[in-house]
Specification:
2 copies of one chain form a homodimer. Chain A has one domain: Alpha/beta knot (3-Layer(aba) Sandwich), CATH 3.40.1280.10. Helices cover 28% and strands 26% of the residues of chain A. Chain A is globular. Chain A has 5 helices and 10 strands; from the N terminus they run βαββββαββαββαβα. By secondary structure, chain A is α/β, with parallel strands linked by helices. Chains A and B meet through helix 1, strand 2, helix 2 and helix 5 of A and helix 1, strand 2, helix 2 and helix 5 of B. Chains A, B: It is an enzyme of class 2 (transferase).
């Protein structure tokens, strides 16, 4: 299993954002939607061995974590609006401490990064990290930030994590996921 | 300069598609919008040395080619709706044989793939091609197809082109562009 977690620092948590304005009313929900896409989509297929965690930290009801499971999602299309509609639905149901399925393969619970880090060991994708092509054995789980840097509190929480870089340019989170999955695909297929 | 050209086999050409339904009314315009994103966006910056050509082959007024120049675009955001709005604007102006600027850095003209191929030599990104990591010198210009395969007529037109693969899995066009640009970034920065 591979896991990606993306922190959405201002991502809306009430489910009332407009599908016609994901960057504004959604608190850059477009960034998270593209991360769902790059985590799960192959051409005409899904990556069923990938989970994508969205950590939503914005108003009005922070923090919530939404999980997309590649093995379970149905009717998900690659466009931003499609994953946004599933996020909106997840945010609209009563939210407890345990993951609850809002639509097939999509889950929501209360809690944010600190809880997730206590459960799953994440490496950090970060342009200051070690070149992932030079890492003999890549880990399974990766944490990324949205368009904002990690906050000082988040940095403290991940201070001990390994950090890997996908390349010499600073990329959007979804692009970094795509590059990383390509490296993993190559290793799994003996292409490297 | 690097150039990407993506064939949108059913992409709408009248500029009347709905920004709320890019996959349906736009004829999978969402695919092309994501290709604009992956061609041009860095984190907090644009790839000013990239041009992205969208070859639109759908009804009601085929064929048209839209060009996004990284060096010239203004106010372009990474979400699909943003590039879609620029495409809609380009399709709505009178369209002649020469590229005409519809908004800064965005151009439109009549004509499709055969005209473009006569002007610019494109390599083809194709999962059956040679592994791009093993290619000593990568070309500048790459052609991709949208969610559909190239048609027999298109295949004939590109029969002589070099073909490169980004990896062992079949990827969406925008993901393939992201992986390719990462390889080019690495070579330009001495990271390989």
């Amino acid at each position: 299993m591979k896991r990606f977690a993306i922190v959405g620092h201002v991502a809306e948590t009430g489910g009332t954002f407009s599908l016609n304005d994901l960057p504004g009313s959604g608190g850059r929900m477009d960034v998270l939607c593209r991360c769902v896409n790059s985590s799960l989509f192959l051409s005409h297929d899904l990556r069923r061995d990938v989970e994508c965690y969205l950590v939503l930290c914005g108003e009005p009801d922070p923090e919530k974590t939404i999980l997309f499971r590649g093995s379970g999602v149905r009717h998900l299309s690659p466009d931003e609006r499609s994953s946004a509609a599933f996020i909106k639905k997840a945010l609209s149901i009563p939210c407890g401490d345990e993951f609850r399925e809002s639509t097939p393969g999509v889950y929501v619970r209360r809690g944010g990064l600190s809880r997730l880090l206590a459960e799953i060991p994440f490496a950090v994708l970060d342009e200051a990290g070690e070149d992932l092509r030079r890492v003999p054995e890549l880990p399974e789980n990766y944490l990324l930030s949205d368009h904002q840097n990690f906050t000082p509190a988040e940095e403290e929480a991940i201070a001990g994590a390994a950090r890997y870089s996908v390349g010499p340019r600073s990329l959007h989170a979804d692009h970094a996921i795509t590059v990383l999955l390509n490296e993993i695909d190559r290793r799994e297929s003996g292409w490297v």
